[in-house]
Specification:
It is a single chain. The protein is mostly helical and 424 residues long. The chain folds into 3 domains: 45 residues; 210 residues, no CATH class; 123 residues. Helices cover 72% and strands 0% of the residues. It contains 22 helices and no strands. Helix 6 packs antiparallel against helix 10 and helix 10 packs across helix 21.
Length: 424
């Protein structure tokens, strides 16, 4: 009988094919994959379906609610209007500003929390400003939150995992800003990519007739509530700001902090329970939970290790330092597009360490390259939690490839160039 790893790999491959064909809605395909993993004994049902109660799903729901509260108070309009004035009323410039800002904040704050904050503002863009369309912003913002997270030691989980790995093998740890030269350059290139390449592609793919935020009926309901007491608007802003501050300092787990903020808004009358139900895009929640469950099953069944071992098994120790660097970056990017970036990085990093130890290459440059490459993978919605969250806003699996198909090549080139210039 095939092993669990082989079964989960076949199921994931089948789901990816169905994602591309698009005959079945993405959320149903992901859920079907989760059911298949359980039916064929590749993973435990509790581990898979518990992802619907994961922190990422809770954060997404909470910040959808914050977005509705922002729309009711007019705060979202003020934020958007300020950004539009800053951009001179040009959507392409607004995209560049928002991508760069999201990436810089992600360097010092949780990627998911940063993305959720931006989504709570930009999800209200449709129907409020002629010529501006929020569907052109959600994927680039998700990309920025992931790539920006690679700039500092605390920016994302892969850096901390790599730090623990280095300590385990007795290597010197990375400094707080060690990743910044490579990650920062990657963020700048991403900003230019989104403005110069991604934006015109996005204009062709996502038209104004395809709203991503609240539908027109909900927008009408929101605008009719603008005459409510000012103290509720002020209190909403205070509660939201307090929630962000608590998240930044990690006083409580992020989902707990977000839920606390929502509960206080409901308790103080800033938003009603009925508006909460309208605010949440439940198909998006199904998508995120289903994809998280599918990837969790693939990971715990050993499928990710099987795929990784097959890829890195192609390596040998006869490469020059630059060729080895290029191969490791490309393998990391490829694996990260098909599984969460942290898992891909932890598969490639030990192989890189073993090769470096065998041939006497310095390990640090390869660690930097692999860690940053794992977070440059943003061409599928299953590459990271942030990209999974963006799928909640109505994108198809193909949309990611059409918008970002050139990005992996640019990212690989920038990472290899920067690491070779700085460390070789």
């Amino acid at each position: 009988m095939p092993s669990s790893a082989i079964i989960s790999s076949i199921i994931l491959l089948g789901c990816i094919i169905l994602f591309f064909i698009e005959r079945i809605p993405l959320e149903l395909t992901a859920l079907g994959g989760c059911v298949a993993l359980v039916m064929f004994g590749a993973a435990d049902s509790e581990a898979i379906f518990s992802q619907y109660a994961s922190g990422s799903v809770i954060l997404l729901i909470c910040f959808m609610i914050f977005g509705r509260a922002f729309a009711q108070t007019g705060i979202a309009d003020r934020c958007i209007n300020a950004l539009i004035r800053l951009s001179g009323g040009r959507e392409r410039i607004l995209l560049g500003i928002s991508v760069l800002a999201c990436g810089l904040i992600s360097a010092f704050m949780s990627n998911v929390a940063t993305l959720a904050i931006f989504y709570s503002v930009f999800s209200t863009l449709d129907g409020r400003r002629e010529g501006f369309h929020s569907r052109r912003f959600m994927i680039p913002l998700a990309m920025a939150s992931v790539v920006g997270g690679s700039c500092t030691l605390i920016g994302s989980a892969p850096q901390l995992s790599a730090q623990a790995f280095l300590e385990d093998i007795g290597q010197p740890p990375m400094g707080f800003m060690t990743y910044f030269p490579v990650g920062g350059m990657l963020l700048l290139v991403l900003t230019l990519y989104c403005m110069l390449i991604g934006y015109p592609i996005g204009k062709k793919i996502w038209k104004e007739s395809e709203p991503v935020g609240d539908n027109p009926e909900n927008n009408h309901k929101i605008k009719n509530e603008e005459g409510r007491p000012k103290w509720k608007n002020v209190l909403t802003l205070v509660l939201f700001t307090a929630t962000i501050v608590l998240m930044a300092f990690k006083v409580l787990p992020l989902p707990v902090t977000a839920l606390l903020g929502v509960l206080l808004m409901v308790g103080t009358g800033c938003i009603t329970p009925g508006n909460i139900m309208d605010a949440v895009k439940w198909r998006g929640v199904l998508k995120l939970g289903g994809i998280l469950g599918l990837m969790k099953g693939f990971e715990i069944s050993g499928g990710s290790q099987l795929l990784g071992s097959q890829m890195v098994g192609l390596l040998n120790t006869q490469f020059s330092p630059l060729i080895l660097l290029t191969i490791l970056v490309l393998i990391t990017l490829f694996l990260s597009e098909l599984m969460t970036n942290s898992v891909a990085m932890l598969i490639v990093l030990p192989i890189a360490s073993q090769i470096c130890q065998t041939v006497g290459f310095p390990l640090a440059p390869y660690v930097i390259a692999v860690v940053v490459a794992s977070q440059a993978a943003v061409t599928t919605p299953i590459a990271s939690t942030s990209m999974m969250m963006s799928a909640a806003y109505g994108y198809s699996f193909k949309d990611y490839g059409r918008h970002s198909f050139l990005w992996d090549l640019f990212a690989a080139g920038i990472i290899c160039l920067m690491v070779s210039l700085l460390y070789f």
